[in-house]
């Protein structure tokens, strides 16, 4: 709006005085300034005020005194004397008339036919006509604006253009708007004034006389504005008007700028207001313009970013105009950039002599300008990368000068160099001439030379040297997308960088500055990051080493990296850095996998065993011992543990490839693994999961694969009991001044048992309040004295407390504890021979655990410990054999293949044979353990004399137990009624408790591997244990699946065992499946009756006929089949007896009677039998014929079936 140039606008001082109605300030205004505010002041003096206070009365007098000397006041008073109600009515009629006429300029109610032009008519008119003329013209413009549908027009009007009458017209305009606010809303009036010349001046006067409407007018103009204001005349006029308003009220400029951003309209206005803004206290760091534009382009609002980027792009398409806001912004930014450049910098590249003295022609960037320079660099990156700004030659030259300047060695200086380097990579077109390229190469060389000094002087861990190294590695491995990602991450913005644009930089890096050999040699010399953790951000040496490991640069150039990685792992702390685990994985891969097949020796060296031991030296002695302050952090120990376990796993997985290359990397020894407190470390990691990231879960995965005996479910559940809330509360009771017991005191208390039982109990109870880690020093004393607890008269409470302490220690040092315990529980004969087992011995032969003192088998608390160790070592043995097989298989096969070349008749041993042998060994091992444990369940002779009976477990299961023949006895089978008393050695005996513990373990073994159950039952075990195993092992029902197969075995003993086992299973599990298997067993018995010889028939049916009682008791529908079988057996036996001319009872007749009328055998009242059986003494039966014995067994079985069925009713 250049047409309003030369007119006097309302000053900020005058506007503030009007806003606050400061009469003193108003009185200080000059006459020209006061003239602009007269409409409001006159109305203020003449109208009745709402404020009736004394203070306002005094101010009003001052205003009247102020106005008394101004001649123009009289004309304004005359304007206020008009009848505005009639004027408003006429105006509304004219609006209706124009609406009907379609907006054409026809008859006017407000103004009759004009004789002269508007200016002359206005000059000669009275106040009322002046009001009518101005109102008519204003309404015409407002109507045209409403009908224009957003198309801009400039209305030519004499009334608003004549410089002579501008002040009078402004007076009339202000009075009209003040008196007719409903007819002339101030926002609509402001919009109409944009379409006339001098509109911004009229608008400022109007708002100055109604200062409360400032925000309303500005918001209305912004809402109705264009999205891109510099594209059209209307946008530029609107921007200029709002800019003048903000110059009149500068305190609201930033609020108006915020409205611009909120509405995403008039971007040029936002920039213009920022250019006009003069803060009270200048910020030395960053200018308002840099802050504002950076906030728009780098903020989180994508809509705002796109809107302002479009402003930049559209502004560049027009020719350069000095009046354009965009060019004003660019000029201001360039001035700020030049202002902070080092004064001695030349715009030309240095010559060769300058390269020798780098600092001679290049003064550094001043420290107070570094932050501002960084902000400017990021802003130019955003303008060029996001908004698409194309820099001019001058801008590009000055930017390059700033980027290649040398800041001081401060954290801000490190940041500036990193930003400059990334800007060079993002916009390589800034370097266009050979001189500029030489300048850039010199600056990069300076970066390489000074990065160590910067890192030490600035006191930061992440310097720009690592970024240089990382970019060089990416260029060598052609990972251009990684470079782009790195640049965007450092700059903090997403920029579209074409990979092809990096070709020049790639050539410079890979051929002039950083050859691959230089990169690897330099990387090894880079110092490790002290106390590396996730809290240290930026690009660190670890990123560079990781990329070099992935690209196999170290092995290619024969540079050893082992020491650097070891030192970095030793300098770590929590929270763990995310790059550490990938670094270890890449390092392990470089150890095991050669860089190329042509050179199989091109691998890195593994960490030595001594270096590993050094990390665990403070805790290795006690598997997490508390001997003193650890030299290395728990993070370092966990990372080294992860390295060892992952190395061993990858070594096993790579055996085939290594065998083909005739290369066998060394595995870490078992002695080393024994000294590492694996379980203790994993337990510590459990409480640090949040700080360790994914390390804890990775360790658990490796443990489950390689050390399954350290991942027992029982151990996890036990840990909950040890580390739960209740133990914590008990531990809180342990005050610091509590009496502390030493290991020697504990040892002495054990030695003096049983007299020292009370003192020993006090010590053990005290130890239960300690944490598992604090118990470790007492482990030797606790385990070494275990054998002493097997002596008689040792209180049960001591044994139980020892069991509890052992389980607590098992959570932190299981492997060492197990070895100590096995050696302590050896029989006294072995102890005298000083035979000590090692961890390896126990993994090779887990059954050593059961070769303990026999008294342990009747000491439930110690037996619980033995079973726990047995379960662990069985799992450990499986893992050990699996690893051993995998380690040796591929190498043995490869060597055998090489040795057999040209030697026919020596085929390779198939791999499946080795696997089968291993599985057979494991099965034999498991079944042997089960058989030994079952044998332990049998009562000894002393226990039998005391009345212990293994069948009492089934007492509640059924009222009648099939008759049994004790080994070595041939005699009548005593039928046991439901009411018959049986001597019990006490259900709470040690034997019973041991049996329960063993049954619990067998149950878990059968669930884990059902094949063990099948193998054990095919082998068989004493029939006296069947009641115990069926009642005590819930998972034994799986035997129903293979009993048919067991019945089909040719050995008579297995068939007998199958039928006896089935009889107990049918009683315990009366299921449809049991019924079908029982039917099959009866059928098999019938078949065998016809094929067995005389001697075998007696051996088979004597122990199996009583089982038919259980079949009938569990499944009454089987009665007919069983009765038929019994009659058939009786007939065969009776016929054999008859051939020998022996006179026996009429057995067959009795059996037929029993079969047909079983209900008449016993009287309904339970009285004596109607069909009495002859009583036979044991002596008679022992000397009797086997067929005779079998006949009586058949008859006795019949009676048992009938008796059990009637008792069941």
TrEMBL record:
Keyword Nucleus: yes
Keyword Nucleus assigned: yes
Any Gene Ontology CC annotation: integrator complex
InterPro entries: Int2_metazoa, INTS2
Entry's localization field: Nucleus
Highest taxon listed in the record's lineage: Eukaryota
Assigned keywords, A-Z: Nucleus
Pfam family, any one: INTS2
GO biological processes: snRNA 3'-end processing
Family: Belongs to the Integrator subunit 2 family.
Protein's name according to its UniProt entry: Integrator complex subunit 2
Species, as recorded: Myripristis murdjan (pinecone soldierfish)
């Amino acid at each position: 709006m250049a047409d309003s140039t030369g007119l006097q606008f309302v000053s900020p001082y005058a506007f503030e005085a009007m806003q606050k109605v400061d009469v003193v300030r108003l009185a200080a205004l000059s006459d020209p300034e006061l003239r602009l505010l007269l409409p409001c002041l006159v109305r203020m003096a003449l109208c009745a005020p709402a404020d009736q206070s004394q203070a306002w009365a005094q101010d009003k007098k001052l205003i009247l005194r102020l106005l008394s000397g101004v001649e123009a006041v009289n004309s304004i008073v005359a304007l206020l004397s008009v009848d505005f109600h009639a004027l408003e009515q006429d105006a509304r009629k004219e609006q209706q008339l124009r609406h009907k006429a379609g907006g054409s300029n026809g008859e006017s109610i407000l103004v009759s036919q004009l004789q002269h032009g508007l200016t002359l008519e206005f000059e000669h008119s009275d106040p009322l006509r002046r009001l009518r003329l101005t109102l008519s013209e204003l309404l015409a413009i407002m109507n045209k604006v409403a009908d224009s549908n957003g198309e801009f027009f400039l209305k030519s009007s004499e009334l608003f253009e004549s410089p002579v009458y501008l002040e009078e017209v402004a007076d009339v305009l202000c009075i009209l708007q003040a008196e007719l606010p409903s007819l002339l809303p101030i926002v609509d009036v402001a919009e109409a004034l944009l379409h006339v010349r001098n509109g911004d001046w009229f608008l400022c006067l109007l708002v100055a006389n109604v200062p409360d409407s400032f925000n309303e007018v500005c918001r209305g103009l912004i809402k109705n504005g264009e999205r891109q204001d510099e594209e059209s005349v209307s946008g530029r006029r609107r921007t200029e008007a709002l800019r003048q308003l903000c110059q009149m009220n500068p305190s609201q400029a930033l609020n108006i700028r915020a409205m611009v951003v909120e509405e995403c309209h008039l971007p040029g206005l936002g920039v213009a207001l920022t250019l006009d803004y003069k803060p009270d206290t200048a910020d030395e760091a960053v200018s308002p313009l840099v802050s504002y534009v950076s906030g728009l382009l780098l903020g989180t609002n994508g809509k705002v970013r796109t809107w302002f980027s479009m402003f930049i792009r559209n502004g560049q398409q027009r020719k350069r105009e000095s009046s354009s806001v965009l060019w004003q912004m660019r000029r201001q930014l360039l001035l700020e950039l030049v202002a902070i450049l080092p004064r001695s910098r030349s715009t030309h590249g240095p010559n060769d002599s300058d390269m020798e003295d780098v600092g001679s022609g290049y003064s550094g960037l001043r420290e107070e300008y570094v932050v501002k320079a960084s902000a400017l660099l990021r802003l130019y990156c955003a303008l060029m990368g996001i908004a698409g700004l194309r820099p001019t030659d001058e801008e590009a030259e000055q930017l390059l000068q700033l980027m290649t300047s040398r800041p001081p060695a401060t954290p801000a200086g490190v940041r500036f160099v990193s930003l400059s380097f990334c800007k060079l990579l993002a916009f390589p077109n800034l370097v266009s001439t050979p001189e500029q390229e030489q300048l850039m190469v010199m600056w990069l060389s300076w970066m390489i030379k000074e990065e160590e000094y910067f890192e030490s002087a600035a006191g930061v861990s992440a310097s720009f040297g690592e970024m240089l190294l990382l970019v060089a590695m990416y260029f060598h491995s052609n990972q251009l997308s990684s470079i782009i990602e790195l640049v965007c991450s450092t700059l903090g913005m997403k920029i579209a960088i074409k990979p092809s644009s990096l070709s020049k930089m790639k050539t410079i890096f890979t051929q002039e500055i950083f050859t691959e050999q230089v990169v690897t040699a330099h990387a090894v010399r880079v110092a490790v990051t002290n106390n590396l953790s996730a809290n240290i951000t930026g690009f660190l040496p670890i990123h560079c080493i990781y990329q070099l490991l992935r690209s196999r640069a170290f092995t290619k150039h024969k540079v050893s990296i082992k020491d650097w990685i070891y030192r970095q792992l030793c300098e770590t702390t929590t929270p763990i850095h995310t790059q550490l685990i990938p670094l270890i994985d890449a390092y392990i891969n470089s150890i095991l996998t050669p860089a190329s097949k042509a050179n199989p020796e091109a691998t890195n060296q593994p960490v030595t065993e001594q270096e590993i031991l050094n990390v665990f030296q403070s805790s290795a002695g006690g598997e997490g011992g508390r001997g003193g302050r650890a030299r290395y952090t728990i993070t370092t120990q966990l990372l080294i543990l992860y390295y060892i376990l992952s190395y061993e796993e990858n070594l096993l997985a790579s055996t085939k490839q290594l065998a083909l290359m005739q290369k066998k990397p060394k595995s870490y020894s078992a002695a080393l693994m024994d000294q590492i407190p694996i379980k203790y470390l994993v337990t510590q990691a459990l409480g640090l999961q949040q700080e360790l990231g994914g390390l804890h879960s990775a360790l658990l995965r490796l443990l489950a694969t390689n050390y399954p005996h350290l991942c027992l479910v029982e151990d996890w559940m036990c840990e909950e009991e040890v580390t739960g809330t209740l133990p914590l509360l008990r531990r809180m009771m342990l005050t610091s001044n509590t009496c502390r017991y030493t290991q020697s005191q504990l040892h002495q208390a054990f030695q003096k048992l049983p007299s020292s039982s009370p003192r020993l109990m006090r010590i053990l109870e005290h130890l239960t309040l300690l944490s598992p880690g604090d118990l470790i020093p007492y482990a030797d004393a606790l385990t070494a004295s275990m054998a002493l607890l097997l002596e008689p008269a040792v209180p049960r409470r001591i044994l139980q407390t020892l069991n509890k302490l052992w389980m607590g220690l098992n959570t932190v040092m299981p492997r060492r504890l197990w070895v100590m315990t096995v050696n302590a529980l050896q029989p006294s004969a072995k102890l005298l021979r000083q035979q000590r087992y090692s961890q390896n011995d126990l993994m090779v032969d887990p059954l050593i655990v059961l070769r303990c003192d026999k008294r342990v088998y009747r000491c439930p608390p110690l037996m619980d410990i033995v079973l726990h160790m047995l379960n662990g070592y069985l799992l450990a043995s499986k893992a050990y054999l699996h690893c051993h097989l995998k380690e040796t298989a591929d190498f043995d096969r490869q060597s055998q293949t090489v040795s057999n070349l040209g030697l026919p008749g020596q085929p390779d041993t198939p791999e499946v044979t080795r696997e089968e042998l291993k599985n057979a060994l494991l099965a034999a091992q498991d079944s042997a353990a089960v058989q030994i444990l079952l044998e332990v369940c049998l009562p000894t002779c002393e226990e039998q004399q005391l009345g212990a009976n293994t069948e009492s477990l089934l007492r509640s299961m059924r009222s009648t137990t099939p008759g049994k023949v004790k080994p070595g006895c041939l005699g009548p089978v005593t039928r046991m009624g439901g009411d018959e008393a049986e001597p019990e050695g006490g259900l709470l005996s040690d034997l019973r408790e041991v049996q329960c513990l063993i049954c619990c373990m067998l149950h878990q073994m059968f669930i884990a591997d059902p094949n063990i159950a099948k193998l054990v039952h095919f082998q068989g075990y004493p029939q006296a244990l069947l009641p115990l195993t069926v009642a005590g092992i819930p998972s034994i029902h799986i035997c129903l699946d293979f009993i048919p197969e067991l019945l089909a075995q040719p050995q008579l003993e297995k068939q007998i065992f199958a039928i006896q086992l089935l009889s107990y299973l049918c009683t315990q599990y009366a299921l449809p499946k049991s019924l079908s298997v029982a039917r099959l067993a009866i059928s098999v018995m019938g078949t065998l009756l016809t094929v067995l010889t005389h001697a075998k028939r007696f051996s088979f049916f004597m122990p199996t006929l009583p089982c038919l009682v259980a079949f009938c008791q569990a499944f009454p529908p089987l009665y007919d089949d069983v009765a038929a079988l019994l009659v058939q057996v009786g007939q065969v036996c009776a016929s054999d007896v008859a051939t020998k001319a022996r006179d026996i009872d009429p057995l067959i007749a009795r059996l037929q009677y029993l079969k047909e009328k079983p209900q008449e055998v016993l009287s309904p009242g339970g009285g004596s039998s109607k069909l009495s059986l002859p009583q036979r003494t044991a002596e008679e039966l022992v000397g009797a014929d086997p067929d005779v014995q079998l006949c009586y067994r058949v008859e006795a079985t019949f009676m048992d079936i009938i008796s059990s069925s009637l008792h069941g009713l």
